[in-house]
Amino acid sequence: MILFGEVEPGEPLTIMGLRERLGAGMTPVREAIRRLTAEGALEARGNRRLTVPALTASHLEQIAFARLSIEPELARRAAEKTDSSLISELTAIDRRIDEAIERGHVRGYLEQNYRFHFCLYARADAEVLETLAKGLWLRVGPSLRIVCGRYGTSNLPDQHHVALDALAAGEALKTQAAIEQDIAQGLDQIRESMQETEKTAALPGAD
Q: Which residue from 140, 56, 138, 153 is spatially nearest to 101, judged by alpha carbons?
């Protein structure tokens, strides 16, 4: 729900509400909340309430630095261990991304985009870096969903074709560069969306 933006930043949540929404027991819900709070994807409030924290400009810059340091490196390592089966799997996922973009299906785009990146990163065999990357994606998921709503799926970043060509050619550094560009474009759109929101809020009568 958080990863794919089904919970908006600032939206109040309760344990009971989550149990009903997920159809899950108290113990797994509490454990999920504990882990997500530790990762910064949820924030505890008073009266047993929770929220997805709003992304600040400072947090975004820190997340951008971390993602652009970690994920291209995962892509480079993965490219050095790639084979035809991985390229086939990534190509199939990317085809589903293209279909979601054409249909304007936001959830489909977000889910398949995540699958593409982490299918690639899993091949890197770098558990620590991959775990860090997953935590960072949780922090930007809700904001990326807002970007999709503002700009539409046709304008979303997609350097996957370039990455796939580089993988097929055995070019690890070109794969790294393609993933870096893909991430940078997405982060730029989040940054622009936040700036537009701030401008709108500052206009007279915006309240």
A: 153
Residue 163's contacts (CB-CB under 8 Å, 6 or more residues apart) are 75, 120, 175, 178, 179, 182
Residue with the bigger pLDDT between 187 and 199: it is 187
CA angle 78, 83, 89 (to 5 degrees): 85
Can you give the pLDDT at residue 72? 98
**Assessment of whether the complete model's pTM goes beyond 0.85:** yes
pLDDT value for 6: 86
Query: For residue 62, how many other CB atoms are within 10 A of its CB?
Result: 13
Give the span between the Cα atoms of 59 and 168, in whole angstroms. Answer: 35
Contact (CB, 8 A) for 123 and 78: yes
Single-letter residue type at 62: Q
